[in-house]
Amino acid sequence: MPLPPVIFEDEALLAFDKPSGLLVAPDRWDKARVNLMALVHARYGAGVANVHRLDADTSGVLLCAKTKAALDALSGQFQAKTAEKTYHALVEGAPAQDGFVVELALREDERRPGRMGPAKKGGKPCATRFEVLERFRGFAWLACRPLTGRTHQIRVHLAALGLPILNDAFYGTDQRLLLSALKRGYKGRATEQPLIDRLALHASELIVRHPVTGLPAALRAPLPKEFDVALKYLRRFAAVPTPARGGTAAGPG
Which helix (H) or strand (E) holds 220? Predict the structure, then answer.
């Protein structure tokens, strides 16, 4: 399997546009599954390390460090929560507000290994800021900015609000986004495929301080083509008018 597209590389940093379905690190249950870091080590050597992780089903920016000094500097930024992450998600439902923050502690679901859930007590504190970018009939397009970095954080926070990410097999529903459901008189239902057939979550941007120069480095991964196609049809056939407003509401989720 070839390496994913490189979106940035210099003497200290190496960033990829990771595709959906590719693990970042070896799977703890199935060691035989292909993972990004094994591919990276085969090409660049064992000295390259991933600074953070993405869910296997999430696509987008994945940053690696080429040196120990770079890894230490970048890891410190993630621990201090100064690394700025922006994801985009297509969710089912209609958010009540145009801007909101979810603060909900999470812990691993003991009944379902590999999945997370809200913690009634204990758990790890988590916070995510959300902004509604566009509304459609039955769906919404969101910018998601996690303020912490817990496993499946964005997915669980949205599901807890009744706004599961489209095609989230762990926390969502089996609803599919079909053109026939949007466009009247659509022909071709017998062979129709969903407009998006993967988790509709993409890590679009990561901003860090460069470990060598100290300057901000903005790493960006373009939206996958199927996201662009789905948004095109949603805008054409399912757009919801945006009412005039004086500002974006913000508050606890």
Answer: strand 216-220
